[in-house]
Amino acid sequence: xxxxxxxxxxxxxxxxxxxxxxxxxxxxxxxxxxxxxxxxxxxxxxxxxxxxxxxxxxxxxxxxxxxxxxxxxxxxxxxxxxxxxxxxxxxxxxxxxxxxxxxxxxxxxxxxxxxxxxxxxxxxxxxxxxxxxxxxxxxxxxxxxxxxxxxxxxxxxxxxxxxxxxxxxxxxxxxxxxxxxxxxxxxxxxxxxxxxxxxxxxxxxxxxxxxxxxxxxxxxxxxxxxxxxxxxxxxxxxxxxxxxxxxxxxxxxxxxxxxxxxxxxxxxxxxxxxxxxxxxxxxxxxxxxxxxxxxxxxxxxxxxxxxxxxxxxxxxxxxxxxxxxxxxxxxxxxxxxxxxxxx
Length: 343
Ligand code: G3P
Ligand code: CA
Hints:
Layout: E1 18-19, H1 23-26, E2 35-38, H2 51-60, E3 64-71, E4 77-79, H3 91-94, H4 112-115, H5 148-162, E5 167-172, H6 175-180, H7 185-195, E6 205-208, H8 211-219, E7 226-230, H9 244-247, H10 250-257, E8 262-264, E9 271-272, E10 280-282, H11 285-291, E11 295-296, H12 313-324, E12 328-331, H13 334-340
Helix pairs in contact: 2-5, 12-13
Calcium ion binds next to strand 3.
């Protein structure tokens, strides 16, 4: 993935450029059709992946609402970001003694009936403190873990009652882990999507960090809807045998384009501050992907966690959309992203 140092841009949406941060950069904004994807719901305001967070995202006008999906012991797809329950529920209080030897409580060790006994909390860190200071307090409020089926019914209900359709953006979390546990996450999710009436032309992007699973969805499971390959860093160990450094190259992107419709890189793979001089540089990733017809939906845009090269959330969003030319962004604050985009 090459970095290109080019001239400062005034209004253009050309990638491969360098743009000064600060007020000059903010002046380049133009309304755009880039998708605003509510990352785990409006998770900047309400505990992630609760129906309350999804309601807020829908009300704010998010184009798509994200679901991270894992399976319960009895094979039911539920909405959770982690394969473990520790960071976002009170599992250690309710099911003391059910942790694995590594000290963690795995969702797949609990039946749906058991998972439903848990309260969802604002995300915590390893010390049990709030991961994002200033967000919703880390207290129980009776919020519970939704199943995928419940969440899809909830979103469709809001689509009907408001007259505005929000799409869905489910992510298969750790499919290889599920397979090792004797469960087929992809098959279970496809079944729920079909039962909920989400056909091939419905507003759905199905995503995964596991390229092997993306290939399997297309070639073996016959999925004909839109697929997005998430791109992380190799050091994260997201999926066995998947090399993100290679997937980001033109050859890797070609492999992705053979089976998928888009990529979901980190925003730092699109915009970097490699020289640590406070100036954002646009990498070649967006141009390389678009040349192959791939949409680019980077993650995660957080108003309360800005990179050094963006003085404000507005500026970060505009750098990604207007300057780098991405097609959509995952954000914890859909309202602020829409505002930054003039919507
Ligand atoms: O799926 C896009 C983005 O959500 C990927 O990161 O870890 O928040 O699922 P994560
Ligand atoms: Ca996700």
